[in-house]
Amino acid sequence: MAKPKAQSPKSEVQSPKSAPAAPPYHPIAHGLSDDDFKHGKVCTTRWTADARYAWDRGVAIGRYLDGLKQGKLLGVRCAKCARIMIPPRAFCEWCFKPVDGWVELEDTGVVNTFSLCYVTWDVKRVKEPQVPAVIEIDGASRGMGIMHLLGGVDPKKVFCGMKVKAVWKPAAEREGAITDILYWKPL
Amino acid sequence: MALKERINLPGEARTWYGELPVQSLYTAGDAGDRFLKTLKEKDQFMGSPCTACGEVYVPPKLYCEKCMAELKDWIKVGPDGALESWTEVHVGLDGKRLAQAQLVGLIRLDGATTSMVHLLAGAEPNDLCIGMRMTPVMKPAAKREGAITDILHFRPK
Amino acid sequence: MSERIAVVGIGATQFRTITPDVSYKELMFDAAVRAYDNAGIDPRRDVDTFVTCAEDYIEGTSIFDEYVPDQLGAALKQVHTITGDGLHGVAAAVMQLRTGRFSLAVVEAHSKASNILTPDGVAACAQDPVYVRPLCLNSHFIAGLEMNRFCAESGVTPGQCAQVAVKNRGNALSNPIAGQAAKLTLEDFRHARPVALPLTELDVAQSVDGAVVVVLATESRARELRTKPVWLTGAGWCNGSPNLETRDWASPKYVTTAAAMAYKQAGITDPRHYFDFAEVDDTYTYKELQHLVALGLANACDVGRDVELGKTATKGKRPVNVSGGALGMGHMYECIGLARLYCAVQQLRGEAGMQQLDKARTAVVQAWRGVPTASAAVLTLAT
Amino acid sequence: MGNRVAIVGVGMTKFVRRALETGKELSWLASKMALDSCGMTMDQIGCVALGTAPDTFDGVHMKGEYLSDGAGCWGKPYMRSYVGGGTGVFSVAQGWYHVASGMFDTCLVVCEEKMSTFQPHAQAAFLTIFDHTTERPLKPNLLWIFALEMNRYMTAYGLKKEDIARVAVKNKNNALDHPAAQIAAPVTIEDVLNSEVLAWPVQRLDVSPVSDGAVAVILANESVARRVTDKPVWIEGCGWALDTAYWTNRDLCYSRCVEEAARMAYKMAGVTDPRHQIHVAEPYDPFDYKELQHLEGLMLCGRGEAAQLTADGVTARDGELPVCPSGGLLGVGNPIAAAGLMKVAELFWQLRGEAGKRQIARKATRGVAQAWGDLMQVGTVVVLGV
Questions:
Q1: Phi, psi dihedrals of residue B37, rounded to the nearest 5°
Q2: Count of domains forming chain A
Q3: Of A25, A170, C7, D349, whose Cβ has the fewest other Cβ atoms within 10 Å?
Q4: Inside any domain, residue A44
């Protein structure tokens, strides 16, 4: 059998010859190169999964999304631990009881942390960075953030603690999705 | 429901659509690579015997599933074999009814102790019986790509 | 010698073909609240360890256990996934309790099957990518091959297999949470469309949504709780070959091995006469028969006749799947075993309502993970 | 209280970018090597605990079942546990409860990952770890959460990139002595600081490579352990904890799940003063800042102090508290679950004094391995001792 030549494991284990070998002693696995694939030196099969879903939104996320469609950020309140939470949930995870009602929050907040990301989710390089951030929402309890994107700002000027405001899609284009907020801009 | 608040209006019960976007490129592996290449280039089925367990694996394996021993020997098997079981499949990968039902069989190649799964052709379900002799029909050599589909199907011999 | 382990709380939602009014989190929360209420415990205060049973492709989310702790009351506590049937999860919890480091454990499994738009596409991803998937076959073909071989070797007829569906879906008529109850006759099978012959669509359990949560405790802890404990006397699980090439197509020996492990722990030497009733996997009709043989509850040559003669019916000598099984209650992916366990515990507690058996002191519960796996778990229970 | 459990054998494959071997074959290579390392055969193994991270990597639904024949599960009780990145170390805890329960004398623990199967790049598989409704529509990248956490950590403690880059330099250079390592070139602080910016503050060399590989360890109860080896390495404690899924509601500067897991493990091990009772540590380092955060979570130093510890050379291989002498994920490679178990394997060799060129300078009788994962929410910890 024509095994790919790349990385003969035994020769690597043995060098340098002067030093005693370190465990693991014969760590085998045959590494392949791009060429091995490109030129069909190895037998391969391909598969694209057909794995599609329609997840039930449920009570809490359903109403959150309906709020977004109306241009509102909705949170929930737990009377026991006195927290106002976003994203909404039907139950308080710390008190383990159903939450006690809805609260309309501001569409402003504070950047808790952020990144300047030059790589898309599917690993494509981009020139202008995306600016994902955790934004603590005004009106919710301290530390209650959501993940979203910043925009309308020079990436170099973004800082932790920056006040931001949601930039919404035009009402007619909203569909009840987190992307009904296009991005958050400095306030 | 143990929730305090419920959905009461049918229109509020909606779904969010999504998928697992998974594209995969699988290697056939150390043993599989050699098996498929031998089949493609030499029209030859190979098996790997385990001297300890007496199993002869087809397709061959790097190791014995039962005792975990390394399988170093390779022997020629088949190409003919015996039908171990069969079925006629009426639904497709998408869950919809197939226009044409597909026969599938388990074939134990001569010299093997394990059975290969493959498509069957050249027979009606009523013609098939366990133990029946089967023979593989290969793709033309030029069209083979080193995959299990280099075997088009098995047919009664 | 470690302490005995007991089931001290059970909770389940209704099993329905669709549950559009709740998210999976809300569905799980419902089952959890019921189980904790049943056991009389507060998960935040009382539970030491949580096990959840789920597979990513079924959920449509990678690393699904991320989204589990909150609705179980388990945040910042000991939680982990077992990617296995709920009964594997129970076995994992039993082992943890037996280390002596934990006294109260929770096991959860659920199904949001209705949220999967492409169940057959998902199932295909479990086939071997090199030798099987390129043939582009619906995974039911594996059950078709197995049923054919099983029938050929045992003499069981497809009609006898059909009788399993008639029994189980009929049993489910009196189960208030069952989602696939129906009054079938053998005549219905004459019109049933083929799936993978000899398997027809009526031979296949149809999926439902639902969740089950089970609370387990060590004996000393169980004595402090208000519920009547049901003892988990044995837990076994085992794997055959995952490869279609190398498995035994007539009998699931891994079920036999798993059962032997559980029976040994429970000190059961004569399973055929020991159990008052059984809740076994019936994902496909023939599977119930195959599993009864593998569990040592029937002979291969009699098992088909037994179902025809009503020996496994509710009023029979040893009832099997009085609850309705997966055929009658619905297929629930990783929750299939917990659904069996839930109904078995109800029986043993004498809380099975219209389904209550006169004699229900011992039970065997078994689960199988479906095609293409050769993976099963077995529990033995006693009052 | 429970049976005492020891590690008696270890095996691992080479970590490579793309393996010819299937995941099953990788699992077998590691399992076979582990069995051979302590002269055991499969019929002496009572059960198998398998660990492997998302199914989307290998592209196989029910991945545990798929891998099971390579991992010696035929005819055996086998279970696969799964807590994302925390899986590798958790699998040892899983194996521990199998044996400590008294139900099994021995357990083979196998962890495998074949990330190269995912096309075009394994990183994209992480899109689906995010909430399908509130996060996935934003098309998040795995790098986002690390970058967000790293920025928060740096901001909270006023750290510079140099302070953190030292970890990458230490670990990648440590890995030069690891025969199974994927990385094989020395690295300097400048190299890290000048490497491509991926998601600021994360740069290319702040990150561990994507890998294929498998690791296996064999656990045994006391009587078997004493029979098969003169040098059993005892599992003195293990712990795990899973925090809330609402990660944007948590303070990302500190891993409280790691602390919670460490508290459980230390309690079991009778460790009351970790800084002095732990002699060597293998904390989880998929990104360089994570090692620092985890040293704090493991209570091996105060909050915000780990960078200074590193700058002072305390965590070097010849330091007072060697950290990631293996080379860690940053150096050896990061086949997710296998990488976590590799850390446990390294402690096994270090505590037995068998780590060859990687052997730490100080005497060590107790070490801690830790992994972390999910949505920055799970901590898994194992304390080993001789």
A1: -70, -40
A2: 1
A3: A170
A4: no
Taking only residues 92 to 131 of chain C, the set having a beta carbon closer than 8 angstroms to any beta carbon of chain A reads 112, 114-118, 121-122, 124-125, 129-130
Q: Do A114 and D21 touch (CB under 8 A)?
A: no
**Residues from chain A contacting residue B30 (CB–CB below 8 Å):** 3, 30
Least CB–CB distance from D13: residue in A27, A89, A147 = A27
Q: Are B139 and B112 in contact (CB under 8 A)?
A: no
Which residues in B lie closer than 8 A to residue C211 (C-beta atoms)?
none
pLDDT in tens, D137-180: 999 999 999 999 999 999 999 999 999 999 999 999 999 999 99
Per the model's pLDDT, the better-predicted residue between B1 and D378 turns out to be D378
User: Which CATH class for the C125-205+233-382 domain?
Assistant: alpha beta
Per the CB < 8 Å rule, is C239 touching D75?
yes
Please tell me which chains touch C, using 3 or more CB pairs under 8 Å as the contact test. Answer: A, B, D
Grouping H, G, I as helix, E, B as strand and the rest as coil, residue D265 is: helix
Contact D374 C66 (CB under 8 A): yes
Q: Looking at the domain assignment, is residue A30 inside a domain?
A: no
Task: Please identify which residue in the block is written with the tokens 């494991």.
Answer: A9
Return the domain boundaries, chain C.
5-118+208-230, 125-205+233-382
**Residue B117: which domain range?**
27-156
Contact between chains at A118 and D354 (C-beta distance less than 8 A): no
Compute the average pLDDT of residues D354-375.
96
B80 CA: distance to closest CA in chain A (Å): 24
The half-sphere exposure of D133 on its side-chain side, counting CA atoms within 13 A, is: 27
pLDDT of residue C86: 98
Give just the sign of the alpha carbon dihedral A86, A89, A93, A96: positive
Give the one of C79, C84, C125 whose C-beta lies nearest to D60's C-beta: C125
CA distance D386 to D6: 9
Total tally of structural domains belonging to chain B: 1
Mean pLDDT of D351-358: 96
Q: Which residue has the higher pLDDT, D2 or D255?
A: D255
Q: At D185, is the pLDDT very low, low, confident or very high (cuts 50, 70, 90)?
A: confident
Averaged pLDDT score across all residues of chain D:
96
pLDDT tens-place string over residues D314-336: 999 999 999 999 999 999 999 99
The complex scores an ipTM of 0.96
Would you say residue A11 has pLDDT above 80?
Answer: no
Residues in chain B: 157
Q: What 3 state SS string does D69-130 have?
A: CCCCCCCCCEEEEEECECHHHHHHHHHHHHHHCCCCCEEEEEEEEEHHHEECCHHHHHHHHC
Give chain C's mean pLDDT. 97
Q: Is the pLDDT of residue A12 over 80?
A: no
Residue range(s) defining the domain that contains residue D67:
5-119+209-385
The alpha-carbon gap from A108 to the nearest alpha carbon of chain B, in Å, equals 26
Q: Which domain holds residue A71?
A: 58-186
Asked whether residue A16 carries a pLDDT value surpassing 60, the answer given is no
pLDDT, mean of residues A103-110: 98
Which of D380, D269, D48, D271 is closest to C101 using CA atoms?
D269
Whether the CB of B13 is below 8 Å from some CB of chain A: the reply is yes
Asked if the model's pLDDT at residue A7 lies above 60, the reply is: no
Question: Hey, is B46 helix, strand or coil?
Answer: strand
| Total count of residues recorded for chain D | 386
What CATH architecture is C5-118+208-230? 3-Layer(aba) Sandwich (3.40)
CATH code: domain of residue D45? 3.40.47.10
Where residue D219 falls (left for φ over 0; alpha for ψ -120 to 50; beta otherwise) is beta
Contact D152 A61 (CB under 8 A): no
Structural tokens at position B17: 């659509």
pLDDT digits over A134-187, tens only? Answer: 999 999 999 999 999 999 999 999 999 999 999 999 999 999 999 999 999 999
